[in-house]
Amino acid sequence: MNKLIKTFRDIFSIEDLRERILNTLLFLAVYRLGSYIVLPGVDGGRMLQNENNAEGIFGLLNTLLGGAFNNASIFGLSIMPYISASIVLQLLTVAVPYFQKLQKEGESGRKKINQYTRVLTIGICLAQSAAYIASNIPAEFIYPEFQGTLFNVSSMIILTAGTVFCMWMGEKITDRGIGNGISLLIMVGIISRFPGALMNEARTQGVNGALIFILELFVLFFVVMGVVIITQAVRQIPIQYAKQIIGNKVYGGQRQYLPIKVNSAGVMPIIFAQSLMFIPAFIAGLFRESSDIANSIGVTFADFTSWQYNVVFATLIIVFTFFYTAIAINPNQIADDMKRNNGFVPGIKPGPQTSEHIAGVIDRITLPGAVFLAIIAILPSIAVKFNVTRDFSQFFGGTSLLIMVGVILDTLQQVESYLLMKHYEGLMKTGKFNEASEKVAVA
């Protein structure tokens, strides 16, 4: 406990880190406040009681946005259009030569890609805001004097402005705060629902189910620990650099390691798979009245706890994990970079053989990572089968847990780097480094 208190004291003793943490908390507070500001003309009280969008893709979005989606708030779309635009641009950098060239141009190329991403975000937001108003805000929840074209147009503009403002806040958090701003906005929305889900689960279990509730907390703890371990797990490929003699000095010759994560794809395979899992129910719904088979398929895939849903879901996750890993990691480029820097894998010839070796390692570690992602993704449905409430079950796995763990670990690593910098500065101020360097110089 004393060590924890000392750590917090050290964190807030660093002026730059303290300012960044306070800036981050301020921006997150503004974001949460905006999640409760309802669109002009909408009856906010009735929207809070609306449960029509508690399931499916709308339920997923509402969970990621901390309830802002169902509230019809000005941040109803939040930064989801920006994430969609980022994914599209990331795929274009793989498939389109023009964007590949931009990516290789360094900082100037990244700035152009960011500009394209922002413009595409506005386009996606305008399209999604129109669909959001039509599908998520029933006409009876709009005050009669506000109904009409003017409400639709003004709401689209407000939702788009809200998304742009969230995007701006995310960038400011990244620049002046701590951690990745966009990821933190999503994480704070997810965590904001945890206390309510926890209290609801405790009330549901009651006094008689106190032991079961404690057991659920233990299971949740070990699931989180498992996600942390797999998220941090890496496979290190040894790399040897050849010695070079430049003048009177010898450079290189040291051995380093190329770290490849077991879960290189992160949460993206689950998001891709989850977006496709609503297609069977949607198509079956078109033929539900004329076909009993279509009706059966629609009912099956509308229930995320059915074994058919989970088998297809897990299969898609495994496929998308390999697909996204292949996009994110290019063995040929890694092998070329190593060859240019006079590096090689011991026992493997530089060039194509190195590329094949790295690709083989990636394939071997991607399979267990993909299976783990599939298991994590279906854990909420298993928890529901054990009578865990649906809101609380979302924290046993799936997108919510992976995002929370990944963002928290990334933020803690940045805080740790500031603490290490403070430690080094403290040693330098005492003069120990200066004394040591003088002794070395004299020797």
Strand order of the largest sheet: 4-1-5
Task: Indicate the CATH topology of the domain at 23-192.
Answer: Preprotein translocase SecY subunit
What is the ordering of alpha helices and beta strands? HHHHHHHHHHHEEEEHHHHHEHHHH
Estimate the global geometry from the Cα principal axes: globular
Tell me what the CATH architecture of the domain at 23-192 is.
Orthogonal Bundle
Return the average pLDDT rounded to an integer: 79
Describe the largest sheet.
Answer: 3 strands, antiparallel
Q: Could you tell me the radius of gyration in angstroms? A: 26 Å
The proportion of residues forming helix, as a percent range, comes to over 70%
Distance between the termini: 44 Å
Output the structural class.
mainly alpha
SS field, number of helical segments? 20
Strand-residue fraction?
A: 5-15%
How many E strands?
Answer: 5
Low-confidence stretches: 424-443
Write down the CATH class of the domain at 23-192.
Mainly Alpha
| Name of the CATH superfamily of the domain at 23-192 | SecY subunit domain
